Amino acid sequence: MPEIRVDFNRPVTVGNEFEYMQQAIGNAHISGDGAFTKKCHAFLESQLGVKKALLTTSCTHALEMSAILLDIKSGDEVIIPDFTFVSTVNAFVLRGAKPVFLDVRPDTLNLDESKLEAAITPRTKTIVPVHYAGVGCEMDSIMDIANRHNIAVVEDNAHGLFGKYKGKYLGTFGAMATQSFHETKNFSCGEGGALLINQPMLTERAEIIREKGTNRSRFFRGQVDKYTWVDIGSSYLPSDMLAAYLYAQFEQREKIQSHRKNIWEMYHAALKDWAQKNGVQLPYIPEEDEQAYHMFYMLMPNLEIRQRFILYLRERGIYSVFHYLPLHLSDMGQGFGYQAGDCPVTEKISDQLVRLPFHNALTSNDQEQVIDAITEFKF
Ligand SMILES: *Cc1c(COP(=O)(O)O)cnc(C)c1O
Questions:
Q1: Residues with Cβ within 6 A of ligand 1?
Q2: How far is the CA of 8 from the centre of ligand 1 (A)?
Q3: Which of 54, 87, 94, 179 to mutate to test the pocket of ligand 1 (most atoms within 8 A of CB)?
Q4: I want to staple 17 with a disulfide (CB 3.0 to 4.6 A). Which of 13, 87, 110, 371 is the partner?
Q5: Which atom of ligand 1 is nearest to the CA of 191?
Q6: Residue 142 confidence (pLDDT) above 90
Q7: Nearest CA residue ID for atom 6, ligand 1
């Protein structure tokens, strides 16, 4: 295999990362909830207009916190799109819930809201929409159904930071939302995440769960005179060194997002006609959505072509990847009684999907190489 010329992903510094990490060390506060963690919280709260943002060690952990906060227990059901990352479901299964996998829409690959109401039972406790590729789900219908049945919504917004649905930021619709700052996401600190809380009554308990089940946050604010064990919990707060790195990335919000927008638009403009001619489906962005420019994917005509295409690009030094396998067909999914045919759209698109190189250091020269290779591919 030739050397990789164009990476699929490359985590890069974009501003003051090193300087801020040095400051964190200079502050003699490198554990959690130091000065940079507070800056990250304030940034997310003011930019998005959420009531409370709490940095976590990962999006996975933010999802686990949300399941604890909602008192998910054995026998509860959680509705989850079949086409998502394992953590979206695992966080709830860890607490004993039974996953109910909902198929996705063939156009946006988001949870199919037209099938949502039929999946609800008296045991349904939570709906977890995932804004795939940072393109918002149909939040009006989802929130309407959830509210009518009195079911909490947790948005898995790992892809969708700064995306909008009908002018409102993704992550601000549900009771809670979760963000990821893993190195593959738009903004990163290697491993990291955040829990966004839109229902103020959940905030105090969230702080306790994140601090090992203690009321330490209240203690530091002088609201109680000693801190002690008050609830279940774990250690979900990241080091302030990571928050320092992340804050430097947040400061470059405009630069990062406009660069990613250019990447997305260049792929789209260059591949539109080629895609139409060859039966390839490009991402669909509904009119009410402003996407977060997290990725550029294509749906190839079938699995055989998709596999040949990935290998073909690899032979030209270009690294492209497929994405999620249908959760209902995984070992765990089958253990919950699912079988082939239960989510036909996910089964189909999972075989067809390929993601093109997309990261904060991708140049237009890199993109030209990718586009040239793609348009020379023999179907
Ligand atoms: C990346 C991702 C996660 C997990 O994020 P971590 O921060 O790595 O735990 C969860 N859900 C979705 C949809 C993701 O893409």
A1: 58-60, 84-85, 87-88, 130, 156, 158-159, 180, 182, 193
A2: 17
A3: 87
A4: 13
A5: 7
A6: yes
A7: 59
Per-residue pLDDT, averaged over 28-56, amounts to 97
What's the pTM value of the predicted model, to 2 decimals?
Answer: 0.97
| Average pLDDT over the chain, rounded to an integer | 97
Residue 278 structure tokens: 């060859």
Tens of pLDDT along 260-272?
A: 999 999 999 999 9
By the 10 Å C-beta count (0-12 exposed, 13-18 middle, 19+ buried), 162 is classed as buried
The residue written with tokens 């999620």 in the block is 324
Closest residue (by CA) to atom 2 of ligand 1?
A: 158
Q: Select from 3.90.1150.10, 3.30.420.150, 3.30.830.10, 3.40.640.10 the CATH code of 253-375.
A: 3.90.1150.10
- Side-chain-facing half-sphere of 257: CA atoms under 13 Å: 14
Confidence of residue 155 (pLDDT cuts 50, 70, 90): very high
CA atoms within 13 A on the CB side of 288: 11
276-285 per-position pLDDT tens digit: 999 999 999 9
Fold of 17-251: Aspartate Aminotransferase; domain 2 (3.40.640)
Q: Considering only CA atoms, which of 318, 308, 317, 315 is closest in space to residue 358? A: 318
